[in-house]
Amino acid sequence: MELSNVLFAFSLTLFAGLSTGIGSGLALLTKKTSPKFLSVSLGFSAGVMTYVSFMEILPKASDALTASLGEKPGGWATVAGFFGGILLIALIDWLIPSTENPHEVHTVEEMDGQSESHKTNLMRMGLFTALAVGIHNFPEGLATFTAALTDPKLGIPIAVAIAIHNIPEGIAVAVPVFYATGSRKRAFYYSFMSGLSEPVGALVGYLLLYRFFTDTTLGFIFAAVAGIMVYISLDELLPSAQEYGEHHLAIYGLVAGMAVMAVSLLLLA
Description:
Layout: H1 3-17, H2 20-29, H3 35-69, H4 71-95, H5 119-150, H6 152-181, H7 184-195, H8 197-209, H9 215-244, H10 247-268
């Protein structure tokens, strides 16, 4: 495996993870949230991730596993990997208390109108949200890195989709920390640092697994990546998109994301 490919995959993962800083920037430097923009963007991200999972990643996983294990065992391994990825990310979500879940919707307007007595609770919420984002982004980092390492043309749209998905997570961290402390620098720092877990997840996963990168392990990881991304799209992105804006805006974004992904894959084929 060439070093240049590893560095490229890691760079994409770093970009995706640190986009939490974009979210904190939106929260700290703008006076008003644009719910419609966030709604369409999150729907678009869900469309990209869902389409690429079912149309590209899962078939690649199936091809690799059936080639190495045989048709029937490979089919079962693909299904196991897909639902194993869903189970992993669902377990992480289950372990995070709902009040500190990074996918709770927050807006810039929440910075105003809070009493002094809320500041301690807000700081606690911000810190726990930062921790939750960090834990949650760990497997996402491995997913982005593995996809980019195996197929760079898949890695780029996946990294962009994950980056869009991380923007509201940055807002979720920055809003309560800023109001609790009054420090934009501190709010940005916690938001920015929470995104670092994504490249860390990629690095740890690579160091632990690179010796075992065979067609079988890569196929299984690819199937798990598809499961993780489908779960993120259905459980996090679409509900958040609908909370930020109108239902139809989220669906329009979803369809647009699928269409852009379909056309780009045909053009790059």
